[in-house]
Amino acid sequence: MVLLGLISKGRSRRSGRTWGIVFVLFALAATLCCASFAADSNTQLGVVLLHGKTVGRASRPEQHIGALVGPLKREHVLVETPEMPWSTRRYLDADYETALNEIGRAVEKLKSRGASRIVVAGHSTGANAALAYAATRGGVEGVIMLAPGHRPDLHRKRFAPYVAEAKRMIDSGRGGKSACFDDVNQGTQLTVCTSAAIYYSYFDPDGLGSMPRSAGLLSPRIPLLYVVGTGDIIYAAGREWLFDKAPPNPLSRYVVIEAGHIDTPSRAVPEVISWLHSLP
């Protein structure tokens, strides 16, 4: 409205002056639009973007989160996409605590590139880890969870025999020994062969892999963007299962979109960009 008013006034004067005003206003608008992500030491935003479990579903860990990388970079956001222990190539070669350390290294890499504000984001298992990192390590400006996955707390009964066996091995000093355990990926049964200690670190229903637990540990100052598709299995759990367990924050958002588990990252691009712009 202000812009239209100024243009209207300008039309009553010389045409050249009118277009001069329009040009200046559009230039100013463009500057303000991009100011929050400008590449300077005070405002540079960095995002650690974590892929989901790719076993049996994708050969490249970045396959499903790749749709976000380009839009983020066009917004002048620095992005790191580390390959995590739940990729096809690595599955599961490191425990959850080590995975969080790897996220920490990605955070430090962003800082070395000039990022002064960090957001951790992830899809599926990556969303699980993004929340766990923010809850246990802190030092971030926000968390983005896209179609969160890996739910040992919801599969407590299913995994119970395998979790108990892994715990017995650990207690008997055989935590470093390998064995084969039950796993699942979006309803598809899998078998994972790894050490008892590594398996237990992910599948303990009360451990780091429990998203409701991590949500309860999140600092009230860290806002959460939770995006879920209506075609995703986790949609039926509702916001009370996880989102409502996080401390209230005026910038936190629970967003439902028309998507399935796999295509949520690509369909959530507008929501992610808009939410990042809302951060102070």
Instruction: Kindly provide the name of the CATH class of the largest domain.
Output: Alpha Beta
Instruction: Count helical runs.
Output: 11
The domain count comes to 2
CATH topology tier name of the largest domain = Rossmann fold
Order of helices and strands: HHEHEHEHEHEEHHEHEHH
Task: Sketch the major β-sheet.
Answer: 6 strands, parallel
In the CATH classification, which architecture of the largest domain applies?
3-Layer(aba) Sandwich
Percentage beta strand: 15-25%
What is the strand tally?
Answer: 8
Taking all Cα atoms into account, the compactness measure Rg is 22 Å
Strand order of the largest sheet: 2-1-3-4-7-8
| Overall SS class | alpha/beta
Which regions have little confidence, pLDDT < 50, spanning 5+ residues? 1-36
**What is the typical, i.e. mean, pLDDT?**
87
Distance between the termini: 25 Å
Overall 3D shape: globular
The fourth-level CATH homologous superfamily of the largest domain is Alpha/Beta hydrolase fold, catalytic domain
Helix content: 40-55%
